[in-house]
């Protein structure tokens, strides 16, 4: 547009307000005060009541100048102001995004937490139970059996995607035990995103959290909080030290969850702890009993694979040698036809047989040869297929060879090397998916 102005194509410019014309005060001022008057262009800003025709002098009104300045300032600073206000609230730990279970946001002061009596009783009970030595699962089960509303239910929020019936889980108990806010301390800046509305937040290390003690009424004392943390971390340590190969291959046949190992000695489906009367309760094995069963199954499976592959191989070998015999016979017959043809020709040349006799015998031999050729081709095809079968059974045999060579003790140690996955249905039914074969066996 400015180009058109310079070329004298435009003699009057009308804008709604000055901010529409340009956001930079200096630039706008330059146009209004120097460029447009020089080019003889009339400039009208409707909302700002500015018309260059009415300003006969060379300067524009003070109000216009101020307005320009304010636009400039306002635009550049607005976003920075919003961000820093939020940052300040966080740094002082005065920012409340949502109330944790046990609290609610004060109806008159939106950044103040106040006790939610009904839920606070439950929170306090959870802390005291943990300190008393109850496991988080035990606590969850008790809350479920008493039909205590879960935090989400209590807030009457139900996620649409969550089709499972709401239940207390040990994770929920852990989350409560971990939450410093229950000691009356406000915690801000535990997570951080690089930009406003950035979905990918990162966890902020504890040292960088913004804390404010006595920010709201405590549900537990700091001492109780520490005791509960201690009780939990003691238990977590024992669970962590027992991680081994067996932890990742046992699954529940009813709900599909990974089985949990209790005290390192027994497996069970985690769901049974949260609901009574579900088939998952049946999924409960002593570790050694389960491994015995799997071990026996492995021995049987190795033997089955070994026998199957040996049988398959010897069948293929037998078939191979009979095909070889057949092929030799056919080739001999074919060669014999050729020799006979030659003999007939010599007999004809020596005048021992007539033209007709020679020609008819030659045609017959050719016919026979063509037939034999077809049979040979068919035989060779079968031989090739048989070779393939032999290679496959060889491969299967090699896959169990490694296990066959192990002693019973070594085999037990390498039990999990042979297993892809074990699905447990109940006390007498497990399904094992082997690594060395695509079929599965039940025990
Ligand atoms: Zn289950």
Q: How would you describe this structure to a colleague?
A:
By secondary structure, the chain is of the alpha+beta class. The chain has 3 domains: 2-90, no CATH class; 103-241, Alpha-Beta Complex (Hect, E3 ligase catalytic domain fold); 288-442, Helix Hairpins (Orthogonal Bundle), CATH 1.10.287. The protein contains 12 helices and 16 strands. Strand 11 (260-262) and strand 12 form a beta hairpin. It is flat. The model is unreliable at 239-243 and 438-443 (pLDDT under 50).
What's the domain count? Answer: 3
The percent of residues in helical segments reads 40-55%
Structural class, from secondary structure content? Answer: alpha+beta
What is the end-to-end distance? 85 Å
- H and E order: HEHHEEHEEHHHHEEEEHEEEEHHHEEE
Largest sheet: 4 strands, mixed
Query: What's the architecture of the largest domain, going by CATH?
Result: Orthogonal Bundle
CATH class categorisation of the largest domain:
Mainly Alpha
Estimate the mean pLDDT confidence. Answer: 80
Question: What is the 3D form?
Answer: flat
CATH topology descriptor of the largest domain: Helix Hairpins
- Biggest sheet: strands side by side, in what order? 10-14-15-16
Rg for CA atoms: 44 Å
Low-confidence residue ranges: 239-243, 438-443
Secondary structure tally, helices:
12
Bound molecules: zinc ion
Strand content: 5-15%
């Amino acid at each position: 547009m400015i180009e058109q102005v310079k070329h004298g194509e435009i003699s009057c410019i009308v804008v709604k307000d000055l901010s529409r014309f340009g956001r930079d005060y200096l630039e706008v001022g330059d146009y209004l005060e120097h460029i447009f008057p020089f080019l003889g262009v009339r400039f009208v800003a409707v909302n700002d009541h500015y018309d260059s025709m009415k300003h006969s002098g060379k300067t524009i009104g003070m109000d216009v100048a101020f307005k320009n300045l304010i636009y400039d300032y306002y635009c550049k600073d607005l976003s920075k102001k919003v961000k820093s206000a939020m940052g300040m609230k966080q740094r002082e730990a005065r920012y409340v995004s949502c109330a944790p279970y046990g609290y609610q946001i004060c109806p008159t002061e939106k950044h103040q937490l106040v006790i939610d009596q009904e839920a606070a009783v439950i929170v306090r009970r959870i802390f005291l139970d943990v300190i008393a030595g109850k496991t988080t699962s035990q606590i969850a089960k008790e809350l479920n059996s008493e039909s205590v509303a879960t935090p989400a239910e209590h807030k009457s929020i139900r996620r649409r995607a969550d089709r499972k019936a709401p239940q207390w889980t040990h994770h929920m108990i852990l989350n409560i035990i971990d939450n410093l806010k229950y000691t009356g301390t406000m915690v801000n800046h535990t997570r951080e995103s690089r930009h406003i509305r950035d979905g990918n937040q990162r966890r902020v290390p504890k040292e960088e959290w913004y804390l404010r003690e006595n920010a709201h009424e405590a549900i537990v004392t700091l001492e109780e909080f520490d005791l509960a943390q201690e009780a939990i971390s003691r238990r977590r340590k024992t669970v962590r030290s027992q991680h081994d190969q067996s932890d990742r291959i046992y699954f529940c046949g009813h709900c599909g969850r990974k089985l949990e190992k209790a005290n390192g000695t027994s497996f069970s489906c985690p769901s049974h702890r949260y609901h009574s009367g579900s088939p998952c309760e049946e999924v409960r094995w002593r570790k050694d009993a389960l491994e015995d069963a799997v071990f026996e199954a492995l021995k049987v499976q190795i033997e089955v694979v070994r026998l199957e592959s040996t049988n398959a191989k010897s069948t293929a070998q037998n078939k191979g040698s009979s095909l070889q015999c057949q092929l030799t016979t056919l080739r001999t017959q074919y060669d014999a036809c050729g020799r006979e043809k030659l003999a007939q020709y010599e007999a004809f040349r020596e005048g021992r047989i007539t033209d007709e006799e020679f020609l008819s015998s030659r045609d017959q031999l050719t016919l026979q040869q063509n037939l034999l050729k077809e049979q040979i081709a068919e035989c060779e095809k079968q031989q090739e297929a048989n070779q393939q079968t032999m290679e496959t059974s060889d491969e299967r045999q090699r896959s169990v060879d490694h296990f066959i060579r192990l002693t019973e003790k070594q085999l037990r140690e390498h039990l999990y090397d042979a297993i892809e996955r074990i699905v447990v249905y109940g006390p007498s039914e497990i399904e094992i998916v082997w690594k060395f074969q695509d079929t599965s066996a039940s025990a």
